[in-house]
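User: Can you write out an input/output pair for a complex, sequences first and structure second?

Assistant: Here is one pair. Inputs:
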Amino acid sequence: MIPEEFKLDNQLCFRLYTASRLLSQAYHPLLCGDGLTYPQYLVLLVLWEKDAQPVNDIAKRLFLETNTITPLLQRMEKEGILKRTKGKEDARQTIVTLTRKGKNLQKKLAEVPQTVGSAVTCDSVNPETAPELFRMLDDIIARLSLPKEPEVR
Amino acid sequence: MIPEEFKLDNQLCFRLYTASRLLSQAYHPLLCGDGLTYPQYLVLLVLWEKDAQPVNDIAKRLFLETNTITPLLQRMEKEGILKRTKGKEDARQTIVTLTRKGKNLQKKLAEVPQTVGSAVTCDSVNPETAPELFRMLDDIIARLSLPKEPEVR
DNA sequence: TTTATTTATATCGTTCACGATGCAAATATA
DNA sequence: TATATTTGCATCGTGAACGATATAAATAAA
């Protein structure tokens, strides 16, 4: 017999990892028609909320590093969904701006949230219980995303 | 103003995706000393529970495809953590068996579950509330992992 | 103002995920 | 028993994640 805490069925992380993967998979058929991946869809959500943001702001909003989203943004630029231009005030920044095509995708994808929503709704997860689930996930995220203090020298 | 359902803060999937990534990251410092990744750790959890399983059983237990874990198992074999041998009854199967080293890792990693556990514990997520969170995640997983019916012909 | 440090982004290498495809062994059907 | 289908696994290509490193611009310190 192995210790309780090593059992897969007692692992929070495995559940999060699996639920996350399966839910991303549920987005796939809804996004791939427009040549989008789920992480690219997340970038669109960020830019629909506020256009013309530097790479760093998008990365921070998604809790990702710039080395993850830079290639992703480059692919989206190649698809004509957005533009990447050098910042005028700060020449180090790359400002990401939606193209007409990128903005129009919002209308084309109008059904996505609803469709995915009904795909996950079940006994224990529904409009009534969602706030509680959201709160727990937000707390986990907050707990784990605390900025690491810089090395002491 | 964009529609409510497009706001990042209303997305379940984004929360799952972020929480999953951050929690996997929390495992990294605990596993990398032994040359392990988080998905490899999951394979170990499966094999510690029951050794000598075919690739397909491991994949199913983790809700993954064999094309994902085959290379992963090959890397773990190269590290001497497990062996891959052809099945005797069914020659198509590859049976995965832990080596001494793979079995011993359980003792070396004894602190891992506890350490990660205390890293996520917070107001809303604790031993008392965990069962509720587990139930919701399990329901989502069950809802999304229903076998897709084969094409009608 | 030189020089040092920090910041914003990009590049690189490795490891997943995962759809698509290939292949051989096992099973079902004719 | 010959043929067709299914099953188990592997290979391939693409797109993330992410640690490590590089580079240029901005800022701070000397």
